[in-house]
Amino acid sequence: MTAPAIIALGVTALFPLLWTISLSVQDFRVGAGGDSSFVGAENYVGVLTSPEFVHALMQTLGYVATTLLLELIVGLPIALALHRATTGRRILRVIVALPLMVAPVVAALAFKFLFSSDYGLINRGLEILGLPEPTWFADVWLARTTILVSNLWLALPFVVLVLLAGLANIPDELVEAARTDGASRWRTFVHIILPLLRPAILIILVIRLADAFRVFDAVYVLTGGGPANSTEVMSSYLYRLMFTRADFPGAAAATILFVIVIAVCAGSIFFLLRDREDRR
């Protein structure tokens, strides 16, 4: 009964993975007659000693850490407010979930128009207020900010909805008992609500971690990796390596290394945040 599932898994998941691993240990060039030869770890050494790979990896790690932190910092207060709100709560939840219906590339194009130096709505608002109008995509940190804002707008609904599900599972009796014992709102949040939200936060971190590592649309549409490769992440680096330079073995080796980095990061978060009982 499980044979079809195993075959489907092998075709859709294992075959591409094994093919990528096989390609990463070969010397293969497009236009060389299709000839290839086994080179062992040579491609991996080449990638690991490449300053571009190291730069893209560091950029990606910084982006992932920043965006996850921002999503939790912004998403948690919104989830708490929606959890407490009684009037119009359903309508507010629908409004918060609207970005989930927008394709990432469409959202990136919308933010490109918003941040445009010539006709963008944001610079227009700054002009009305008499404030300086920055060139968003020409400055390194401003370009990074546009990517973070675009990604935050897209990811926030998922974070808020998962946190709302976690808040709904917290018994009201615990919070009421803490209040009866004289605990302040802050102490109740830190010692009761936040620990009980740990499973929801773990889900958010693991899923959003993998998603943040794969960011491509926002970078490609908003900055194209610029200025001067300052916003280049691993996805855009792999795209350039494969489709611009046609270095398929190098791109395959970089992909395998990238997958290992994602697996290590996701495993570390899962190990740190899982319940103590599960560690035994």
UniProtKB/TrEMBL annotation:
Its main location: membrane. The keyword Membrane applies. Residues 57-270 form the ABC transmembrane type-1 domain. PANTHER family: BLR7065 PROTEIN, SPERMIDINE_PUTRESCINE TRANSPORT SYSTEM PERMEASE PROTEIN. This is Sugar ABC transporter permease. Keywords: Cell membrane, Membrane, Transmembrane, Transmembrane helix, Transport. It is a multi-pass membrane protein. Belongs to the binding-protein-dependent transport system permease family. GO terms for cellular component: plasma membrane. The chain crosses the membrane at residues 61-82, 94-115, 141-168, 189-210, 251-273. One of its GO terms (biological process) is transmembrane transport. It is found in: Cell membrane. Gene3D superfamilies: MetI-like (1.10.3720.10). Pfam families: BPD_transp_1. CDD domains: TM_PBP2. It comes from Microbacterium limosum.
